[in-house]
Amino acid sequence: MKKEFVQDLLDHVWQLQKNTWGEGYTSGIHNNWIRAARNCGQKIEIERKNGHPYIHFFRPDGSFRGTLDPWVLPTTTRSSSQACASKVKTRYFLERANVPTPETQDYREGEAQKAYEDFFQSATSRQAVVKAHNLSQGIGVYLNVTPSNFVETFDSCIELQKERKRSPKVLVQEMLDGFELRCTVVEGELVDVIARIPAYVIGTGRHSIEELAALKNESRLADRFLARRKLNLEEYNTKAKMLAEGISPTFAPEEGELIILSSISNIAYGGETAIVTDLVSDSIRSIAERAVAAIPGLTTGGVDVMVNSLDSDSPKVIEVNSFPHAYISIYPTYGNPTNPLDLYLQRWFLVDDFERGDRNEFTLEEKEFLEKYYAFIKQKLGLVGGLFVK
């Protein structure tokens, strides 16, 4: 990620409120879903299988409404979840709906040379994103991969997944300039946009990068969300980034100088987050909703979009997640928090009640949402046609 992109993003983000999360913080996606379910005002039952919660919901009349599986939302079809898990399938549906997306292909163990030849045959000056297929939160993601380190990086992705007892597969994607936004779409409507800022420090003219990172980590101890997500100068991508920039942990940047410590915009690597929903262009908002509409059977999802500015008119969708880790929206570093989990349950219940005829009266806000929801369904039918499964 180029410094000018991050600096431009930070100039906007620093104008937002700074948050510190203490009391009331709940860790982990599943714990936050349990919290949302317990606060939804309706009967639930929690069943645990293999250490994961299955949350069963019931209507006021006692009838069964649906189950929130550990990785599948009640309104999400299994086929759409599988489509999102395969980035190649995701790309197929996005391209079919004329949603801009980077070149993507996936490979299995032993196919490093084939992947190398496929990707670099047109130009050896290209750079790739190499991702471990079955990991999350930025783990196993390598950026700016060149011909000289491609095979080594590919093999590292395979080993990383095998160490975690996952079926290894590697995703190879075209490297794009810009920064990444996570757009959360809940039942057809964009509800928030999160900017994920890579780990960085700001020079004082006196302290080394190592000292600046230690000071920043110390300040994070006051925030329960960031306390365990520290800047780590020994992490692979951080070391690679500093090597590429020709700097070391002992380098002392000038006062006010921005030093980016990772090419990966993820809180797991010491990054930060900001709610920037009100700052992004209509193009970004609409492409996120269109991306979810493009996947058959999907109405709620997290859409990762690559842009070169918050007012970009040419965003590209790099990933669609059918089970977004939307609890990150509840605890942003900057900006007004949102709660997509609570909102999802409210909207699921509302549509279910409306379609069953269980309610006759609706608030103005509910009527407006239902109108938007069915407009989204109409758009979806136009994009996926006979592939649509609700």
Automatic annotation (TrEMBL):
One of its GO terms (molecular function) is metal ion binding. PANTHER family: BETA-CITRYLGLUTAMATE SYNTHASE B-RELATED (PTHR21621:SF0), RIBOSOMAL PROTEIN S6 MODIFICATION PROTEIN (PTHR21621). InterPro entries: ATP-grasp, ATP_grasp_subdomain_1, PRibGlycinamid_synth_ATP-grasp. Residues 91-349 form the ATP-grasp domain. Keywords: ATP-binding, Ligase, Nucleotide-binding. The keyword NADP does not apply. This is ATP-grasp domain-containing protein. Gene3D superfamilies: ATP-grasp fold, A domain (3.30.1490.20), ATP-grasp fold, B domain (3.30.470.20). One of its GO terms (cellular component) is cytoplasm. Its cofactor is Mn(2+). The keyword Nucleotide-binding applies. Pfam families: GARS_A. Signal peptide: none annotated.
